[in-house]
Amino acid sequence: EPEVTQTPSHQVTQMGQEVILRCVPISNHLYFYWYRQILGQKVEFLVSFYNNEISEKSEIFDDQFSVERPDGSNFTLKIRSTKLEDSAMYFCASSVSGGMETQYFGPGTRLLVL
Amino acid sequence: KNQVEQSPQSLIILEGKNCTLQCNYTVSPFSNLRWYKQDTGRGPVSLTIMTFSENTKSNGRYTATLDADTKQSSLHITASQLSDSASYICVVPYFSGGYNKLIFGAGTRLAVHP
Fold it and tell me: What's the pLDDT score for residue B99?
C-alpha cells in the first residue's frame, strides 16, 4: 500500500541553524500539508500546498518557514533559523484532493533544537 | 472560535472490554468529522470520516456516531485489544478560501491492559 515517507526520522540542530525536512507524498496525490506536534500537545496545521503554491497557512507559519516541491516527488519544509520552540514532531500529509478526501500522514520527523 | 474538545483525556481498560470516547466541536460551517488513531511517535491514521448526514459508521470494531444538532461525536471500541492502545483524535476540517485545514482535538489516550 502506498504511504507517505519522511526523512530524517530524527534531527538534532543548534539554535539558529537551518533545517530542511523532507517528505515524499503518495504519488497520485495533489495536495500536500505540513503539521507539527509539540510534545504533549495537539497536532497543529502549518501549511497546505497545491499546484506549486501555498494554498493556506496558519499563524504559526511565519517568515522563518518555507515549503517547496523541488521535483516531481519531494515536498520539503525549511526552517531558516531554528528556535528552541521549534522542537516538535513534524508530520507531512498528502491527499488526492483538498475536499473531503482523507489526508494520509507520514511517520513524522522529530526535530530537537538545542 | 473553531474548537474540538475531547473527553476523557485518558482511559485505562482491560483487554476485551468496550469503551466510548467523546468529541464536542464548535467548528462552523460543518461538513465532516474524522477520527484518527495515533500510535506513540507515529503519524495519525484515519479510522473513519463522517458527514453531517451520517449518524453511525462502523469500521471493524470501531463505531463512530455523530449528532450534528448537538455537535457531538463518539467513538465506540468493542472487544478491545492490546493493539488498541493509542491516542484517538477527533478532527474537524475548517474550510477557508476553498481549502481545508484540519482542527485537531487533544486526543484521548487509551491504554488497554491484559
Answer: 63
The pLDDT of residue A78 is 97
E strand intervals along chain B: 4-7, 10-14, 19-25, 32-38, 45-51, 56-59, 62-67, 72-77, 86-96, 99-104, 108-113
Which residue in B31, B41, B43 is closest to A100 by CB distance? Answer: B31
Contacts of B63 (CB under 8 A, 6+ apart): B56, B57, B75, B76, B78
Dihedral sign (CA A10, A74, B92, B110): negative
The pLDDT score that the predictor gives to residue B28 is: 83
Question: Among B32, B44, B100, whose Cβ lies nearest the Cβ of A98?
Answer: B100
pLDDT single digits (tens) B43-78: 899 899 898 888 999 999 999 999 999 999 999 999
For chain A, give me the number of helices (H) and strands (E)?
0, 11
Query: B38-50 burial string, b = 16+ CB within 10 Å, else e?
Result: beeebbbeebbbb
Report CB contact under 8 Å: B46, A103: yes
pLDDT digits (tens, 9 = 90+) for A90-104: 999 999 987 767 889
